[in-house]
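TA notes. Do not distribute before section.
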Amino acid sequence: MSTQPQSHSTQSWLPSNAPRKLLSEITEPGTYVCHGSGDLLRVAEAENPPGDAAPMDSQDGQPVYVTRVSSNPFFPISRARVAAANMDIEIQF
């Protein structure tokens, strides 16, 4: 029995179970992971009131998408890593 290697393109693959939103659309506090860079972002309620501008809108001219891994902005890093892994999000923290 022969097996054929499977080809995976990381650029065309998007996690199916990770709801994404633009960084500039964040209106709720929590711990977020940036897609592409894999950075951890903590948003406290006082830092980002509704309608306030996000700290950065684009990365290299491209929009920044994030996924919230917890509603707690002080979520422990170890648990944020597990939550991101469960959503198939690559991380760099």
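Switch to the second chain here.
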Amino acid sequence: MSKVKSNAFLYALNLLGRRPYFSFELEKKLSEKGFDSEEISKVIKKLTDSLLLNDKERFKALIEYYQNSKKFGLERIKFELLKKGAQREILDEMLDRYYSREVSERIKEELILKKKEELKDEEKYKAKQKIYTYLRRRGF
């Protein structure tokens, strides 16, 4: 395989040195910088072949992060990943593969208990409504 030593490749390496990217995010960054599509395709292929760019691992890491650290539900995770530019077909497949419904239920119960404790002085109806709204915002 020929060596790609273009400015696009160096720019992509610089971006990847700061944080991981999806291939579609990197493509967008490179095109915004003014590189042509043929050069971008070569750079993405070279980075993918050298395992510096791996969309499946990026999906897995982000889904686990949003679920376990941020404590988001399925809908909020979907929203966050679509906001990053993920394609819906790929996103649905990755969520089926890496999203854990059991962990989600456990997290939902933890959030309910936490919110109940915070709202113990509220009227029962208002507290229930606030808990429901809180869970909806978090994607449950």
